[in-house]
Every structure is written in C-alpha cells, then in structure tokens.
Amino acid sequence: MEKVKTLEKASIMDKVKPQGMSNASVIHLIISLFFMFIFGRICPTWSTVTRMGVQGVSILIGSIWLISNRFGLVFTSFLGMFAVVVSGYLTGNAILSTTLGSDVVFQLILVFVFVYAISETGADAVLARWMISRKSLNGKPVLFSVVFMISITFLAALVSSLGAFMFSVAMINSIANAVGYEEKSQWKKTMMTGAICTSSIGGAILPFKGLSLMIFNMFTVGIKASGIQINQVAYMVSALIAGLLFSVAFGLSVGPLFRVDFTKLRQADVAAITREGGTKMNKAQIIVMLSFFVGFFYSIGMIWVPKTSPNYPMLAGVGQGFWFMIILVVLSLIRVDGKPLINIDQMIGKAVNWGIVFAVCMFTVVGMMISDKTVGIQAWLGNILAGVFGNMSFPVFMITLVLATILLTNFFSNTATAVIIGTLTAPFILQYTTSAGINPNAVIPAVVMSASCAYLTMGAGGSSPLYLGLDCMKGENKWVWTYGLIALVLEVTITTGAFILCSYIL
C-alpha cells in the first residue's frame, strides 16, 4: 500500500513538473516563486522598512535562489522584472526605459561587441603571447601575476572598471588557451577574481568620474562647510598607494592563498606558443585595439573640456554609449586587405551575452527598489550602523568603516551603500580631523574602493553579473564564497592599512 502511494505521488510530480526538470529543481523553483511573489506580501514589516521594501528584499532573495540553482540568467531576469511589475513599484515600460534604455546597458552591449572584435582579429591572443614571452616574466608566474594585476589597476584608473574587467577577461582566456589551463582551473578562477577586484579598485583612483565623483562631492560639501581644505591630490595619492599595494599583495597570494598550480605557466613552451601566431600585431589588430581604448577615453577627455566651450553641449550630449557606437560605425567602414575590418550586423548577434545584459537590467531594477529612500531600508540600515561608529580610535574606526562597507555592498546597491556609509561617517571623519589631525582626503577613497569591490552576489554591483556569469564561475558558488571571501579579506587588510597610514602622513 505504501509503495502504491509513493508511486502515485511520483506520477503526480511527473505530471506537474516541466519535462526534463528534476524534482529538486521543481522544489527550488517553487521556493523562488514563493519569495518573489508571496513572501514579501505576508512577511511582517519591521522598523522603518515598508511593505514595498519587504517585497524588494524578497524578490532579491528569490532571484539569487534561482540563479544559484542554475535556472539561467535570462529566465531569472525575466521572472525577476515581472515580479517588480507585480509588486507595483514600476510599470513594465518604466523598467524598459530604466534598463535597456539606459546608457549603462547600451554601453555594456557595445563593449561586448568591442571585446568580440578584439578576439576575432586575434589581438588578445597576440598580446597574451607577448606577455608570456617576455624574458623578465617567462618562467616567473608569481611576477607575471603581480604585473598583470598592476596593469589592470592602471587600466581601470585610466579607462573604466567595466572596460578594464572586460579586457582582462579576454586576456585571461587567451593566456589560459595558450598555456593549457582548463575552463574550471583554479588559476583561471583566481585570475578572474583578481581582475574584478583590481578593476574595481583601480576605477576608484581618480575622483573625476562615476561613483568616485559622486561620493567625493558628497563628502566635500560637509567638510568644506567646516572650513577644512579639500585636496584631490591627496585623494589620488592615497588611492593609488592602496590600489598598487593590493595589486601586488594579490599577485603574491595567488600561489599560497589561492592554491594555484603554476606548473603550466612556469613550464610553458614559449617558442611553440609564439610560433603559433607571433607577438606582433597586424594592421587590423592595432586599429581595433586602439579603438577600444579611444572609446573609453571619452569619459576622461570630457573632464578636460571647458564647460564654457561652445562645443561642450554637443560633446557632452553624445555620451559614452553613443561614442562607442560611432567608433564601431567607423571601424565597419575601414577596409584592410580589401575586407571590412568588422561586420557589425554579424558581430552584435554573436558577441552579446544577453543573459548577462538582462541580469544587469533585473538587478539594477531590484537594486533601485531596495535602495529607494521611500521603502525604508536605507533608514533601517542607517539606524543599525549609527550605533556601530563612534567611541573608537581612528584605526579601529577605519577597519570598521571598510569592513562594514564591503559587507553591505555585496548584498546591497553599491551606490546606496556609499551614500549610507558616507552620510553616517562624515561627522566622525570631521571629528577625527580636528582631534587626531588625520587627513580626510585619505579616508574618502576607502569608502569608494570598498563600495566598488562587490561580486559575491548577482545584486552586488554592475560588474557582478559579468563575473558570476563567466563560464569558469558558473555553478561555483562554494568557490566564490570561500576563495572570493579570501580576496575580500585581503582587500580589507591591505587597503585599510594603506589608508590609515596615508591619513596620518599626507
């Protein structure tokens, strides 16, 4: 009788579940749907968090649950955005204009095309062979790792975090193919983690653009009102020191902390590798590579264009995304050896990882939802953290500041995290400035860098779906939450020490 009942239950489950889906997958799907559409409506509100805030957190949990159980980025993103519509926070049209219609997403799509063009021409492979064949780096994997991380840090500072990370992904893939590292190798996962850390940190070095500009301006309003001098040079020097120290520390730690086997890199047959395609770029490769960097230098160039210039409105109106678009159009018109340099129509169909694009869209919307001041989550977190800061020595304050920022930004919007932490800690920074003589300009980049270094969850930051969506990182949640945490501990240790030192001596 028991056996008959069991068979009946099994047959019912087989009828209900989608064809080809296991019972475990059905259970995970039901749990995710419960969080996305039901839990947020029945869970009691708390403190300052409103019903909409509870729904936002529930949708985030459900989305992460789906992705963690391998339901795919597109499936999860579509379901997550629909859940936001059902919650009443945004309409479908509003979500489309906020995400696919934004400059950030448009830029991401075109960066995919650029990186694909670099790979198609073989420029990334040539550059990878060139790096491997350097006598100073050949057979020295630790030094190679250090130089690579420093290079990504500088590239991110000059270009952007997104551009540096996407370029580093192409480089790591090319190097892995050249020396024989497999897709899921410890070396590849570690280097990708180092790339997202150094690109995030490098992007915070210059206080002229993006998140760093916003936070810097937010801090300076209150600090200037207190009569304390603001110095962007001190910001950049302290940020550069912290960034370089972390890059070196991560490169040195690839072997001992991340347990990477350097055998293939150390014993690589450089002669055979360089024979495959050489180490000098051809005309097409040079043009595409230079165009990639010219595209990202738009943001830097606009900093130096006087706002009083008659051409400023037109140049500023182009935007980063459309600047990329124009460069791709120009590249498609260039002929090398009688052939078009690139074919945009073909490339845009092959190059774009739509799963990652839609994941960025969905988590952007959910991030907006939970960081909206009206839903009360910011105020709730502010109340909790307000009791944390205070009655501390300055070194302890800095450690707490960086640690709290990193923990919060990996589960919350990095922009909202920076705003919350910055607002709460500004009065304390002023107090330390007058009582301990510290330089506040060396504290601000600590918040910017820590808020930028987010990748543990899909909703952590703009680059986290790119990182977690990589082939080598898919299904590697355990790895991310062990070795990924090691990287964050290293970041807290190295950068905090650097910023404390700079606060006293600059």
Automatic annotation (TrEMBL):
Residues 64-437 form the Citrate transporter-like domain. One of its GO terms (cellular component) is membrane. GO terms for biological process: transmembrane transport. It is found in: Membrane. The chain crosses the membrane at residues 21-42, 48-66, 73-92, 104-130, 142-172, 192-221, 233-258, 284-305, 312-334, 354-371, 383-405, 411-430, 442-460, 480-505. The keyword Transmembrane applies. It is a multi-pass membrane protein. It holds the Pfam family CitMHS. InterPro entries: Cit_transptr-like_dom (IPR004680). Keywords: Membrane, Transmembrane, Transmembrane helix, Transport. This is Citrate transporter-like domain-containing protein.
